TrEMBL record:
PANTHER family: CHLOROPLAST 50S RIBOSOMAL PROTEIN L22-RELATED (PTHR13501), LARGE RIBOSOMAL SUBUNIT PROTEIN UL22M (PTHR13501:SF10). This is 50S ribosomal protein L22, chloroplastic. It is found in: Plastid, Chloroplast. This protein binds specifically to 23S rRNA. Keywords: Chloroplast, Plastid, Ribonucleoprotein, Ribosomal protein. The gene is rpl22. Pfam families: Ribosomal_L22. It comes from the Eukaryota. One of its GO terms (cellular component) is large ribosomal subunit. Signal peptide: none annotated. InterPro entries: Ribosomal_uL22, Ribosomal_uL22_bac/org-type, Ribosomal_uL22_sf. It comes from Crowea exalata subsp. revoluta.
Length: 57
């Protein structure tokens, strides 16, 4: 009997010395959570929030 185990990929990032409130950053991060990398980059480029630049970086 062969058991196929599918592992879930988890990614985390830590930003230091970013002058921005967590609420403002979370507003942008919630929009891109669960999306593909290319789609997330496109969304970050088109959103009008100042928080997009450090998140994209």
């Amino acid at each position: 009997m062969i058991r196929i185990v599918k592992k879930k990929v988890e990614v985390s990032a830590l930003g230091k010395h970013i002058c921005m409130s967590a609420h403002k950053a979370r507003r942008v991060i919630d929009q891109i959570r669960g999306r593909s990398y290319e789609e997330a980059l496109m969304i970050l480029e088109l959103m009008p929030y100042r928080a997009c630049y450090p998140i994209k970086k």
